[in-house]
Amino acid sequence: MNRAWRLLKRRLVGSIPVLLIVVVGSFLLLEAAPGDAVDAYVASVGGDAGMIEALRQSWGLDASPMTRLAAYLWALLHLDLGHSVALSRPVLSVVLERLPNTLLLMGAATALSFFLGTALGIVAGSRPGSLRDRLLSVGSLALYAVPGFWLALVLTIVFSVQLRWLPLAGMETIASGKTGFSRVLDIARHLVLPVTSLGIIYLALYLRMMRAGMAEVWRMDFTLAARARGIGRRRIVWRHVARNALLPLVTMLGLQSAAMLGGSVVIESVFSIPGLGRLAQEAVGARDTPLLIGIILVSAVLVIVINLLVDIAYATLDPRVGASEANA
């Protein structure tokens, strides 16, 4: 318990400069881009020079970039992410309103890709070089090469437009009045295609990693010794090979969280899911810098938390890692 607590403190302290770099870097990159929120607003509704100047003063865009950055960092110390100029609402409330939908999409896609990919990887790696190993390896390579947006469009055309088995878009049926378990089922039906589109690529990645890890473990001395003692192949697979090959997948689970969060931007746009990805797309169109930085900051915190949980899980699975990290 003390080792886990020391590991947790080290990771939390190390995440502070990371978040600072994310905030400052995002602010400077957005400032370097041409135009601002006033330009985007005037381009959509029109306006004269007087209105433009008034908007810049009202939204605080008349100050220098360094002055606005210092003011933003000071507000951030008080957990204030600023005010969205496009939505006229606090950034934190807008982000927290959309965050559950993204978490639900990411969680379901991660569970699908990790558990199914691991299971198929065990099936392929239990007998390296067999026909099922070759078929699964080729299939996973083909899936990994498929663009997520293309797969999302194909699944939508087949299962929503032609067969009409699943909903076309959205998070749930609008104004359906469903509550309780019926609402849960309605949300689940709406998530089938987005989760499949987002998770299928990473499923192929976990399958290939698990298969490669098992192929390596099969050649290790303790596995050869277990086979020499006459232990059954199924017992060797589950108690020795699969267990040792699983550790790199746990690490990859944390590394792929950022990639999956980025992939959700495309999937949410295709299926009109009101999550952080679609909110970021709207913020880019409106040049809403405070909202964009807030989304990036919350996403960075989310990735750090996921990787922290993965580190704790890895230290639990392999006590040697936890001991070395805690004593470092």
Automatic annotation (TrEMBL):
InterPro entries: MetI-like (IPR000515), MetI-like_sf (IPR035906)
ABC transmembrane type-1 domain location: 99-314
Topological type in the membrane: Multi-pass membrane protein
Protein name: ABC transporter permease
Record-linked Pfam families: BPD_transp_1
Gene Ontology terms: cellular component: plasma membrane
Family: Belongs to the binding-protein-dependent transport system permease family.
Cell compartment(s), UniProt: Cell membrane
Record key words, sorted: Cell membrane, Membrane, Transmembrane, Transmembrane helix, Transport
GO annotation, biological process: transmembrane transport
